[in-house]
Design brief:
By secondary structure, the protein is of the alpha/beta class. The protein contains seven helices and eleven strands. The chain has a nine-stranded mixed beta sheet with strand order 2-1-3-4-11-10-9-6-7, sandwiched between helices. Strand 9 and strand 10 form a beta hairpin. Helix 1 runs antiparallel to helix 5. It starts with a strand and ends with a helix. The model has no long low-confidence stretch (mean pLDDT 97).
C-alpha cells in the first residue's frame, strides 16, 4: 500500500488533465515514486477522501475554487466537508495554495483580495516561528517560489502560526497544531509546471494576458530549490513519525 495520499480538487472538462499534471509535479518535487502515493480526485459530490489513518501523510493540491465565492455550489460544499475531515485526523496534512485560504477560513479567520499575486515568482521570508519549524531547519531566511492566487488571508485565526511572509503577500507559509501546514505558493512547481498550469488556466484571472510571454520567458531563471525542498522535508517528517 502507498505511504502518502494526494488529494486533487479538480473537476470539469480540464479537471483530469490538471490532476494528472499536479500528480507528476508532486512526484518530482517530493521524490516519491508512483507506487508510494495514491491519488484521490474530488471531481464530484460522490468522490470522497476516505480514511487516511493508514497513510503517513496527505498532500492537498491547489484548486481554482475560492473561499470568497459569494454562493457555494454543491461541489464546493462537499469539498469543504471533505477537507474539514482532515483536521480531525492524526495524519499530517500539507495544503497548497487554495488550501491556505481554505484553512484560514475554516479556523475562523477571514480571506479577501488585498494581496493577490500574479502567476510567476515570489519571495518567501521566514519568520522567527519558521526558523524553529521542523520542516525548515537549515533553510535560508529568504528563498524564491512560484505562485499565482487571487485571494489571501487577511485576519488570521489566533491558533495559526505564521512561518513565512513576503513583500507581496502577508502569509506565505503557516502551521496549525503540530502537523498541519499550508503554503500560499506552489511548493510543487518548477518552470515547466508553472507554464503548464498557466496554459490550463489562461483566462482565469491569475495573470494579465498581455504579460504571458514575459512571465514564461522569466520562469527558468527562478531557483525553486528551496520551495521544492519544503515538500521533501514534509515527506521526511512524515516518515520519521
Amino acid at each position: 500500500m502507498a505511504s502518502f495520499l494526494l488529494v486533487c480538487l479538480r473537476n470539469g472538462e480540464i479537471g483530469p488533465s490538471v490532476a494528472r499534471a499536479e500528480f507528476n509535479d508532486v512526484l518530482r518535487s517530493t521524490g516519491l515514486s508512483r507506487d508510494n502515493i495514491d491519488v484521490r480526485v474530488l471531481d464530484s459530490t460522490s468522490a470522497t477522501i476516505g480514511d487516511v489513518d493508514s497513510y503517513r501523510g496527505v498532500i492537498v493540491g491547489g484548486s481554482s475554487l475560492t473561499v470568497t465565492t459569494p454562493q457555494y455550489d454543491a461541489w464546493q460544499e462537499h469539498i469543504n466537508a471533505e477537507l474539514r475531515g482532515l483536521l480531525t485526523t492524526d495524519t499530517p496534512v500539507f495544503f497548497i495554495c487554495f488550501g491556505m485560504s481554505w484553512l484560514v477560513d475554516a479556523l475562523g479567520g477571514s480571506v479577501g483580495h488585498s494581496a493577490p499575486e500574479a502567476s510567476g515568482p515570489t519571495v518567501v521570508e521566514l519568520t522567527d516561528a519558521g526558523r524553529s519549524d521542523p520542516l525548515l531547519a537549515g533553510f535560508p531566511s529568504q528563498f524564491a517560489a512560484l505562485t499565482g492566487h487571487t485571494e489571501n488571508p487577511e485576519v488570521l485565526p489566533p491558533d495559526l502560526s505564521v512561518l513565512a511572509t513576503g513583500p507581496t503577500t502577508p502569509v506565505q507559509l503557516a502551521r496549525w497544531g503540530e502537523h498541519v501546514w499550508a503554503c500560499q505558493f506552489h511548493a510543487e512547481m518548477d518552470a515547466p509546471a508553472m507554464k503548464t498550469r498557466m496554459d490550463f488556466f489562461y483566462d482565469y484571472g491569475y495573470f494579465p494576458l498581455t504579460d504571458y510571454d514575459t512571465i514564461i520567458a522569466a520562469l527558468p531563471s527562478v531557483d525553486v530549490t528551496w520551495s521544492n525542498e519544503l515538500l521533501r522535508r514534509y515527506v521526511q517528517y512524515c516518515r520519521r513519525r
